[in-house]
Amino acid sequence: MKALIRVVVCGSVDDGKSTLLGRLLAETGSIPEDQLESARFTRRPGSTIPLGEVDYSLVTDGLEAEREQGITIDVAYRHLMLPSRRRAILADAPGHEQYTRNMAVAASTADVAILLIDSMRGTKRQTHRHLTVCGLMGVRHVVLAVNKLDGVGYDQGIYNELVAEVSDTARRMEIQSVIPVPVSALVGDNVLAHSPNTPWYHGPTLLDALDAADIQEELGGEVRLPVQTIIRGKQFRGYGGLVAQGVVRPGQTLTVAQSGVQAKIVKLHSLQGTEPYEPEQALPGESVTVELDKDIDIARADLLVTGEPPQLADRFAADIVWMSDQQLAHGRSYTLRCGPLEVPATVTNVRHRLDVTNGNTMAARLLEINDVGRVEIATSRPVNLEPYTESRETGGFILVDRMTGETLAAGLNRFALRRATNVVPHHFEVDREAREVLNGHPAKVLWLTGFSGSGKSTIADAVERRLHSLGIRSFVLDGDNLRSGLNKDLGFTPEDRAENVRRVAEVARLMYDAGVVVIVALVSPFRADRQAARSLFDDGEFIEAWVDTPIEVAMQRDTKGLYAKSAAGNLPNLTGVGQQYEDPETAELHLSGTADVERNVTEVIEKLLPGAVS
Amino acid sequence: MSIDNETSRVLDALEAEAIWVFRETAAAFERPVLLYSIGKDSTVLLHLARKAFHPGPIPFPVMHIDTGWKFKAMYELRDRTAQELGLDLRLATNQEARDQGVTPFSHGAQEFTRIMKTVALRAALDEGQFDIAVGGARRDEERSRAKERIFSLREAGHRWEPRNQRPEFWHTVNNTLTDGQTMRVFPLSNWSELDVWRYVARENLEVVPLYFTQERPVVKRQGTWIMVDDDRMEFEAGEEPEMRRVRFRSLGDYPLSGAVEGEAADVFDIIRDIEVNRQSERAGRLIDGEGAMSMERKKAEGYF
Lengths: 614, 304
Known about the structure:
CATH topology of the largest domain in chain B: Rossmann fold
Largest interface: A-B, 76 and 67 residues
Shape of chain B: globular
Strand order of the largest sheet of chain B: 3-2-1-4-6-5
Number of strands of chain B: 10
Radius of gyration of chain B: 19 Å
Helix content of chain A: 25-40%
CATH superfamily of the largest domain in chain A: P-loop containing nucleotide triphosphate hydrolases
Number of helices of chain B: 8
CATH architecture of the largest domain in chain A: 3-Layer(aba) Sandwich
Oligomer: heterodimer
Number of domains of chain A: 4
Order of helices and strands of chain B: HEHEHEHHEEEHEEEEHH
Number of helices of chain A: 16
CATH superfamily of the largest domain in chain B: HUPs
């Protein structure tokens, strides 16, 4: 059994939650005596509890800021000493409807839930909501505290009815076990000690039920070890991470899921006391450092596995809990994070919204704060997200707003919609580095962005001529030229432009891997699309250059006659006229499209291949 | 006495989480710094940092916010530890205030702490351009800490805004910082004071000897024993140092740290005492006696 279990506490103040928690914490000695002092000698108006006795409802009182501003802030974490000397970390989330997202946070890591219901008022929409969120977030065990039984004369009939109702709902939510306990938090019945008031009850007390909740360590399954950090020492290189699944042992052969490269574990490294120590194994949930027998290319967020690597995919169906005041914007690019993994991602479709109070799904086009819904997500490159039901750690993710840093949503991957590949990537011995040595220069990508007529193609042509004269292998990918072949099925709507950029970026990536300096000349008006292209390359390999030409100048040049067409109403999506151009914020180069071409070329080449021109 | 098996497994779980936090701090942020205050929590923190990156070195500097009024025994342990472990130790002091003669006696506990700790900390973090600072705070220390995150966001100016904290899911950290935001991170969030001592015992870590009972020169002040650690001590009328067998539950500036009587010869005595008496270490700190919620206000100002 796990030594440390995580518990989500579901219920609201009205159900008697603070009193129940206060009593559990105080009577198990989980709170120091001196911290109970104020609960002995402070009283709420109208309180009938004698001074000097602990008012349990005050033990877990919140922040000053909350009381002064009348707000409730997120989740409170407290630890509870269990009779077995194991430990529970209680995540206490506010219970009301406007806090669904907070409950999702608390439930995301929970092994077990304490679900509190008020026997005087029965189950409510709220109880259903709590069970739904628990089920969704993967909580498999529930300890059901049927509270305020003193208020209904300890009626066994009422108790049985409530238990049956909740158990029925819980089953539908894929919750494996429900342990019901009749309690009165106020009087203390069956919380820590059996109560004479419920002679008909022979089950465990609430504390014992929690201590007995069957939380096994799952030791089975293949190894899933996301690389968190590279450990560097004197002549040492190792990989540190938290074991997400399986048992890690020396002698195992690990595969890097993305590349298919393999290496064997030589040793695990740790300290015992202050002395170096080599553990024989690392279990799920443990932090480990592995040393491999070969020096292979491994970076943060690589997934090390035994057995068959999980399928790579770049389209997923997922359930998400929307956390933000800003609505889910369809088609907007966010940062998806799953453990150390970080990848640009777009919500491409909202399939439906879930009514958490009754389990029904409804058609929806957008999601608002506290909504739960099924969506489709596209990542800018293939990743190893696993189904959440198989692994919370490698299947749960968050979406982050890149501009504000806000965590917008929590997501639970359900299944891959499109597999990026049906074959395990083969690792070739001759790689980019080898080709670069042969070529005598590094591979790079220059990405020229700007209005039509801004001068991208002119600069691209001039840069390539200069590179050629320097003996550097290069190739120009020109937007218009590609549209006559590879991209001839695409138009100019934002969606088609995104696909256009994606394809060009992928071709650039292939040519870059071939060791070539790639010059891309593409309007690429949207920041998110350019960011997605950039994410295919390592830092410093992708040079974004903004060819900045006033729209008036571009219109006047009108090299392709597009602005004339647009003026005649025949071209609705022309960038700078019918469609917006989002100015680059992170471009490495800012070129003036009206400046001397040769000067631009020199600037570009100095940035692209420092030292190539002397 | 030894640490029983179930308790040791709890410590393993807490340790694994703390190591994960340290590694995330080093890998997902640009310029981390470990705040080291030489007490038992810092000792555990430093040990966990070593363990997280072993056999490599701790990949970030360690900083002591030095008020100039720590116990001599603390400075001794600090300097020896830094040398033995080869730490990149940085010292930060509000020198201007010190030069102006700000002392615990001239300004009182609360103001002294604000000037010499909070202000000094803010300035040192700004100067070092650290985007994340590791601290040893625990959620069990005080009620308002129960709502603190492990990765705690600070707005520009190090301000803690309780409404703007990020939800913490699984082992996924949102490390995006914008507009002068920084992060404070607390690897010991889920540890209790007992866990810290049990871990010190299990890992056989060296702590400042002031935690163990010895005869020490003290005066009685505000119901607690204050140790006369050097000749800068300013006595109040009628105060006369006397020798008492005392020990400290928590260490800070010597004129502001209260000692308790009672025997504790080793770590196991301390553990037994906490198990039996269930008094928290904060009971002895003069600084916290000023309103139950003072910690929350100090945090809003940029304290830990």
